[in-house]
Amino acid sequence: MHLPDILLVHGAWHGSWCWELLIEELRRLGRTAHTVDLPSSGSPAGLHEDAEAIRHAIAAIDRPVAVVGHSYGGFPVTEATAGSAFVTRLVYLAAWMLEAGTSISEAAGMPPFETEVVPPPPDAVAQFYDDVDPVVAERAVAMLRPQSARVATDRLRAAGWLTIPSTYLVCDNDKTLPPAAQEEMAARASAVHHLPTSHSPFLSAPADLAALLDQITMDQARVRS
C-alpha cells in the first residue's frame, strides 16, 4: 500500500516548530510528514496568502498527501485544497471548517480587531496548553508570534471539503475553540473522532495523535467514534 504523505498546517500565533513532537511519532510509524509556515503568523498577510503558501507546499510534495489543519490552519487549508488533484483527505484538528464566502469573524460572532496584528494571548498556557507538560508549554509560549488581524475578516473563496474526504478531530477539553462549536462544524465532515485533550494534542499527546492520524489518513470510510 502506498501511503499518502502528511502536510501539517499550524494555527494562529504558531509556526511549523509546534509539530516537532508529532513528526517524531509519525516517523516511528513509518509516515512522512511535511510542514509549512503561514505568512500571517508574524506579518500582516491574510487568508489568501496563507492559502497560496499551502498550495505551494502541496505542489512541492508532488504526490498524494493528506492535509491536517489545526485551529486557524483549517481555514486556509479549506481554500487551498479546493480542486487539488493531490489531496487524499483533509483533517481538521480543533479547526475552523467553514463554508465558502464565510469569515471567521462572522462565524464566531466577533467584531474585527482594531490593530493590524494581534499579540499572543496573555493566558496562552491556559488557552492552548492546559494539559501540556509545563516545560514544553513554557518553550511553546516563547515561540509564539503576533498574528495578522486580517485572517479573521477575510472570506473563503472555495471549500475543498466539498469534494475531498474529510475528518474532524474534536478536542473535548478545548478552552480555545469550544467543543460545541467544533461539533457544529464537524457536521460537515465525512468522519468525526474525539480526543480527550485541550487545544494542542500535538504537544500533550503526540503519540496518540500520530496513531489516530496514521489510521484515518488510510481510511476513507465514514466513521464516527
UniProtKB/TrEMBL annotation:
Q: Known PANTHER family for this protein? A: AB HYDROLASE-1 DOMAIN-CONTAINING PROTEIN-RELATED, ESTERASE_LIPASE_THIOESTERASE DOMAIN-CONTAINING PROTEIN
Q: What is this protein called?
A: Pimeloyl-ACP methyl ester carboxylesterase
**InterPro entries from the UniProt entry:** AB_hydrolase_1, AB_hydrolase_fold, Sec-Metab_Biosynth_Hydrolase
Query: Which source organism does the UniProt entry give?
Result: Lentzea waywayandensis
Domain of life here? Bacteria
List GO molecular-function terms, semicolon-separated.
catalytic activity
Q: Which residue intervals define the domain AB hydrolase-1 in the entry?
A: 6-211
What is any Pfam family matched here? Abhydrolase_6
